[in-house]
Inverse folding.
């Protein structure tokens, strides 16, 4: 079966961290997806619009929201980064294919959830968490979200507001390069897991972020923390 292709129009572009943009597109009426899935954008080269390559991005919005939200981290000279910085403005259009992926919540598990992410790895978790909490899911959900510095943080207030609203959701924000006046967690997310989730072997675990982190967390889960393979869901990206 052919994967559907859509033309989507940009609604807004907002710099929300040192090198991360919040990009919103109008959602096509026929487009549906599951929280945690991703799409492929056909991205033209900034200097040669005829040169088009696909780039994958997790959908950060929920299926119930009217816009498609993406968190796009800039990389120097990157194809999507240049398009965002040099070409993207209100009503700019891109072709989009999807949705893709099986990185979605296990509807059959009775276990509590643990989400571990770095930087824009929080994008699929925003969709998953909002959807699950708004649907009335009462299982405990812990989000461990790490970046290097305070200026790299984004959606912090939104996650904290969710934790205030829903008694079964807890957010743990960590800076690996925390300044002296930082009152939150310090260190890399993988070093914090044992203190935040000492009962990790009994949880359903989702990990998303840079490939070094996801690889290390996967190895720790399976080799040291007693996590069953069926309870571990990992998505790494560059």
């Amino acid at each position: 079966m052919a994967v559907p292709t859509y033309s989507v129009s940009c609604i807004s572009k907002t710099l929300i961290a040192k090198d991360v943009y919040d990009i919103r597109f109008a959602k096509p009426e026929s487009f549906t997806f599951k929280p945690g899935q991703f799409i492929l954008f056909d991205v033209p080269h900034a200097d040669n619009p005829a040169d088009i390559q696909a780039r994958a991005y997790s959908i950060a919005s929920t299926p119930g929201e009217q816009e498609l939200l993406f968190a796009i981290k800039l990389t120097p000279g990157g194809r999507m980064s240049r398009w965002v910085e040099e070409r993207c403005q209100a009503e700019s259009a891109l072709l989009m294919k999807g949705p893709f992926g099986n990185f979605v919540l296990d509807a059959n598990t009775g276990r509590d959830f643990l989400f571990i992410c770095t930087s824009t790895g929080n994008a699929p978790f925003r969709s998953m968490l909002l959807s699950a909490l708004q649907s009335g899911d009462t299982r405990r959900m812990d989000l461990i979200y790490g970046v290097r510095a305070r200026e790299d943080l984004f959606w912090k207030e939104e996650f904290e507001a969710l934790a205030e609203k829903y008694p079964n959701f807890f957010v743990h924000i960590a800076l690996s390069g925390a300044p002296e006046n930082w009152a939150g967690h310090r260190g890399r997310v993988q070093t914090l897991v044992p203190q935040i989730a000492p009962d990790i072997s009994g949880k359903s675990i989702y990990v998303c972020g840079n490939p070094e982190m996801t690889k290390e967390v996967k190895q720790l889960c399976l080799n040291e923390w007693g996590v069953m393979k069926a309870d571990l869901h990992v998505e790494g990206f560059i």
Notes: DSSP finds five helices and twelve strands in the chain. The chain has two domains: 5-100, 113-236. Residues 5-100 form a domain with the Elongation Factor Tu (Ef-tu); domain 3 fold (CATH 2.40.30.10). The first helix runs from residue 79 to 87.
